[in-house]
Amino acid sequence: MKKGWFSAIGLTLVLTMVFLSGCTTTAALPKGIFSTQQEGIWVSGTGKVLAVPDIATLWLGIEAQEVSVAEAQAKATEAMNKVMDALSENGVAEKDIQTQRFSIHQVTRWDDIKQEEIVIGYRVSNMVTAKIRDIDKAGIIIDAVAQAGGDLTRIDSIAFSVDDPSAYYEEAREKAMEDAEAKAKQLAKLAGVTLGKPTYISEAIQVPPIYPERVYMEAAIPAPAPPPISPGEMEISLTVQVAYVILD
User: Fold this and answer.
1) H helices within 42-94, ranges in order?
2) What pTM does this model have?
3) Domain ranges (residues) in the chain
4) DSSP character at residue 135
5) CB 66 within 8 A of CB 75
6) Which class in CATH covers the domain with range 53-163+209-231?
7) Do 90 and 60 touch, CB atoms closer than 8 A?
8) Which residues does 240 contact at the CB level (< 8 Å), separation at least 6?
9) What is the pLDDT of residues 127-176, one digit of tens each?
């Protein structure tokens, strides 16, 4: 009895395989079984625009060293308060100032007689970033900070960015889509097919890297004029990936 059941099942499987192998199209099968996301013509397009920065971000702070933590911290706090006042007086809003690092470290030196490291003091560092929205005042603010903090001033670097890049991204997006369409049309022509409408679009925004310009200062050096600061231009880039239907 069991042998009969196995024979029937085997015959059914053979007939099913013969039926499927005899089909020349997949029209009778459920839609999507053999479709993949790579059908059609797939291209990528890039759009690039130049933008003039309107924001300057300044890395600055105070570093004080004394024989005790209390003395070092008191000295650093006094100098940092003067720096904060200088930023405020020159139009930098409180919301645009953010603490990046606060640290207290032992300062040691090697003692040849004792053959060991000995503590000679403590160093307090307080570093912040200040977002300067009036970019033309960047040089003036750097000079004011250096004067306010005196010999404890540390000005590390400055970087430039665009506060609201949306308009630039819109322009870059148009250029990216035009670039993608031009590539797709060329590929369709070379392949001898007719290009249809897009069926898939994806976007990748390439955020411009920040390359800080080093303006490191360890002391306030009186100068006849503020340091010259040039924001220049920055490139904003956007990439799209588009899939087009092939009509014939």
Assistant:
1) 69-89
2) 0.67
3) 53-163+209-231
4) G
5) yes
6) alpha beta
7) no
8) 44, 45, 47, 173, 176, 177, 180, 201, 202, 203, 204
9) 999 999 999 999 999 999 999 999 999 999 999 999 999 999 999 999 99
